[in-house]
Amino acid sequence: MRLVFLGTPDDAVATLRALVDAGHDVALVLTQPDRRRSRGGGVDPSPVKRAASELGLPVLTPARAREATEVVAATDAELGVVVGFGQLLPPAFLDALPHGVVNLHYSLLPRWRGAAPVERAILAGDLETGVCLMRIEEGLDTGGIYASVSTAIGSKETAGELHARLTELGTDLLLEHLPRVLDVEPVPQHGEPTYAEKLTVDEFRIDGSRPAEELARVVRAGNPRPGAWMIVGGKRVKVWRARPEPGEGRPGVVRSPGELVTTAGVLRLREVQPEGRPRMPGDAWMAGLRERAVPVEPVEGS
Fold first, then answer.
1. How many CB atoms lie within 10 A of CB 90?
2. Residues 1 and 179: beta-carbon distance below 8 Å
3. What is the pLDDT of residue 35?
4. Measuring CA to CA, which residue among 9, 178, 148 is closest to residue 81?
5. Average pLDDT, integer, range 128-133
6. Distance between CA 7 and CA 5 in Å, rounded?
7. Is the overall model pTM greater than 0.90, yes or no?
8. Alpha-carbon distance 170 to 198, whole Å?
9. Which of 59, 164, 252, 260 is the most buried (most CB within 10 A)?
10. Integer distance in angstroms from the first to the last C-alpha of the chain?
């Protein structure tokens, strides 16, 4: 099938390569513009742009998808495939392809429409998620579903690990059902929608004012981006891995051998990263503080 592929992050690279390996004719790849580095003044291409270049595929990096509408229409592609492109597609763009555009969305729609479905599912304590192969419409993730696959969310699984699993499941789903997309109508979504708002750094700040179980989900959802963090001794400490455990004490302190006391249980700090330093086990970081208990700066309003 002749396709236009739209994607940007690492997650999308495996799907792009799989489409090429399966013999599909990728006429054009669209991805987000190169990002300017904070230091050095250079720019970094997206993972998808790098992969497309390695595969010898033509690439466009429009600031707005509508800027590429005429080029897309001229490719004579039958269908567009989106995996984490990062832009809303206007109606004129969708109409530029005879069979429209499909998307791999990493949730079981209509739950978690929007920008961060994997992280929101973990934060909410969902036990299950999945991938939907859906038709893109003008509304936000409102299109019908061609096929879906579900999977349990591991109790220790980070957002990065879950993303990787969903990419594998979604790629298989796409390859299996893509030939049928041209001939069938998708099934409308049913159920009450929920929305996965874009993540902010501030919502991943932790202290002892919430239960350890909840904070463990914050840590998992923030790994690898943007990372859970706390302020100890006036400095930021990122928390990359942690687990909830039974325990009591004064909420809002970290204590030996490396645990944050919360309102319900303690959060065992398995891997942390003090400001300006590499990652390390929580007990090693705590030992370096030379104090058995140190207060964590409370989050405003907690």
1. 14
2. yes
3. 85
4. 178
5. 98
6. 7
7. yes
8. 22
9. 260
10. 54
Spatial separation of the C-alpha atoms in residues 157 and 220, rounded to whole Å: 7
- Please give the DSSP secondary-structure letter assigned to residue 70: H
Query: What amino acid occupies position 81?
Result: V
Left (φ > 0), alpha (ψ -120 to 50) or beta: where does 46 sit?
A: beta
Tokens for 128, please give them: 């299950």
The two tokens of residue 107 are 């949730």
pLDDT tens digit sequence for 65-120? 999 999 999 999 999 999 999 899 999 999 999 999 999 999 999 999 999 999 99
Phi, psi dihedrals of residue 239, rounded to the nearest 5°: -115, 110
Q: Which amino acid is at 24?
A: H
Cα–Cα distance for residue pair 69/272, rounded to 1 Å: 46
Which residues, 6+ apart, have CB-to-CB distance to 38 below 8 Å? none
The two structure tokens encoding residue 210: 């919430």
* Tokens at 8, concatenated: 């940007």
pLDDT for position 42: 78
